[in-house]
Amino acid sequence: MGSAxxxxxxxxxxxxxLRYSPMQLWINKSGRLMAYGNWRQYDTVRHHxxxxxxxxxxx
Length: 59
Fold this sequence. Notes:
Elements: E1 11-13, E2 23-27, E3 33-37, H1 52-58
Antiparallel strand pairs: 1-2, 2-3
């Protein structure tokens, strides 16, 4: 038998049906729930002022 590996990936949240997911959730290697701000990953919304407050809250 081969060694087992944990599943990888994340849950991308699309509140209000937004086209671009502002954040994602995933479990890190230590088993902790983590959140990541995605808005900088999309050129279309990277500098949109609507993400400024969310950016401040998540640091």
